[in-house]
Amino acid sequence: MKASPGSPPKARGWILGAGAQGRVVAAIWRRAEPERELAFVDDNASLWDSEVSGCRVMGGFQTLSDVVRPNDKAIVAIGNNNARTEAAKRLSPLVPLANVIDPSAVLMPGSSLGVGVLVGPQAVIHTGARIGNHVIVNTGAIVEHDCIVEEGAALSPGVRMAGRVHIGRNAFLATGATLVGRVRIGDGAIVGAGAVVTTDVPAGSLTYGVPARVIREANAEDWKRLF
Asked: Any bridge partners for residue 136, and if so which?
């Protein structure tokens, strides 16, 4: 439906990144705020003026400085944790950051979110849990009571965290990982799919297995395979 003459333009939701993570964000944001007009920005010039998931790719990152409207919001949709947090530093001065939360997700009273957070379908964030800026809580992930998830971390689909778990900055938990209560995952660590974590995981390590054990230091190839 077109706006009536003289009415203000619709607020936009800007999605920085038109790849797979961007399509996920668009699908959730459309459910959460169907009245908001969604658009992508992406530095890949081959995507400019195309459509991704029914949303126009308006141009590169610098496009935002010219086209942001009042009440616009934005989120970084980049899967790689380090790249997402770095991009957010560029984005935040230009447009307010949004939290994109699927309507089926459960955020219990007493939980808290930073900014630029994505919460997927059927995810649960329980009372006392604290989610930092630019965190991904993906489909069906459970963040139990009093957990802390620091900035830039990513919880893949089906991750299960018992109470008082602490996830470090930019850590990555792969699909179906299970964490017993009170364990700590260090900054930048990778926990493999299906792992059962019963002890603390060092920063920057690659850990997997049942029970999980530290394999070695995570490297660039490990991160490349994740995304």
From this structure: 118, 154
- 6: in domain: no
Q: What is the pLDDT of residues 138-163, one digit of tens each?
A: 999 999 999 999 999 999 999 999 99
Domain boundary among the residues 98, 115, 134 is at 98
Would you give the end-to-end CA distance of the chain in angstroms?
37
Average pLDDT estimate for 18-25: 98
Long-range contacts of 124-133 (CB under 8 A, 24+ apart): 126/163, 132/169, 133/85, 133/88, 133/97
Q: Please give the tally of structural domains in the chain.
A: 2
Q: Which residues, in sequence order, are CB contacts of 70 under 8 Å at separation 6+?
A: 8, 11
Indicate which residue of 126, 134, 145, 166 is catalytic: 145
How many whole angstroms separate alpha carbon 60 and alpha carbon 43?
4
CB-based contacts of 122: which residues, under 8 Å, 6+ apart?
102, 104, 105, 139, 140
* Sheet of strand 148-149, all strands in order from the earlier edge strand to the far edge: 112-113, 130-131, 148-149, 166-167, 184-185
* 145: annotated active-site residue: yes
Flag whether 2 is in a domain. Answer: no
Instruction: Output the pLDDT for position 6.
Output: 62
- The CATH number of residue 128's host domain is 2.160.10.10
Q: How confident is the model at residue 62 (pLDDT cuts 50, 70, 90)?
A: confident
Both 46 and 154 in one domain: the answer is: no
Q: Is the per-residue pLDDT at 8 higher than 80?
A: no
- On the question of a cis peptide bond just before residue 211, with omega within 30 degrees of 0, the verdict is yes
